[in-house]
Amino acid sequence: MTLLAVGINYNTAPVAIRERLSFPADTLFASLKELRQVREISEAAILSTCNRTEFYCTTNTANEQFLIDWVAETKNIDVASFKPYLYTHADNQLIRHMFRVACGLDSMILGEPQILGQMKSAYQSACEAGTLGKNLGRLFQQTFTAAKKVRTDTAIGSSPVSVAFAAVQLAQQIFDNLKEQTALLIGAGETIELTARHLRQQGIGRIIIANRTLAKAQALAEQFSGVAITLADIPSHLAEADIVISSTASQLPILGKGSVESALKKRRYKPMFMVDLAVPRDIEAEVEQLRDVYLYTVDDLQNTIDQNMDSRRRAAEQAEEIIDTQVDYFLTWLRAENAQTTIRDYRLQSEQLRDEALQKALALLKNGSTPEEALTRLAYGLTNKLIHTPSTQIRDAAANERHDVIAAAHEIFKLNKS
Q: Residue 50 catalytic?
């Protein structure tokens, strides 16, 4: 039995290739069923995210070509168009790889936590499709244990390493309870979407999204139960905002000192927290002079992010040590399972020999042999059958100078040295 994985990720393949090899959630169940039908596979799971697609399986061969051929046929693409982007892991390498992926050590953003949830979803999908068995199922469980231990015992996920996350964490430090605050997000790009997601996760009370194109603002606002406005509407709503985070591609400032000052008067000078993530800046630098405004730029946050990345790298070194231990735990379990299989097979073989010898002894009794003769034949025949194969193997080992096999025979059979 071989544990095998084939995959692509953001490091090995461009997005155009990753898109073609992705498995959407609505097709995953059927795809897992089909993959499990491949002759060489006994267990299977598929992890598919925007940054990676990986196929995990237990198989009777160490050659991954059968899996590559299945992907090509399933996705209707030529093998040559994606094979150069693939990587393969087997047995010990696969175990370590799955642990590192789940811990965020193989992610685009070091230590990001989302991948663990995606790994758990892959496991759940495989369970529902009935494509997991004892070995791969246990490997997933050990993977989750390793990830939990890394999260608990290291600081790999405790420090923000994206400007969006850093901005929201800073807001939490300024406001005791985000549930009572209103956030005005200016822009509708990836950074603002990520900011909105973090704010929603932290329980923000209300979100207003402003964008030059109202339709884009509405599309984003719908995801987070927010309100959409245009940039021209900002002066009418600015006073409502306790938190203002802006990230647009505008070449001119969107918020000036005068408009912010007017909003402060309407708020009766209740403080405002503002983060300008844009380059060039969306918020005039002079806004910082206002007494009741806390204004931060992308440079302010970047210093924090750089420090946090250093912290995560140090934590990653600790995580690798934890993974070493977890890999050893799983290998110990796997070796024990393999031993159990060997013991079971040996017992079945011995019982078959016993039954054959017993049938012959019973036949002797029916044909008139004495019990003493039948028992003697039974003991003699059974002994010969039980020792025949081991004796042959030991002789072959001696002829080929396989002293390790002879030593193992002494240990297994507890033989006295003569």
A: yes
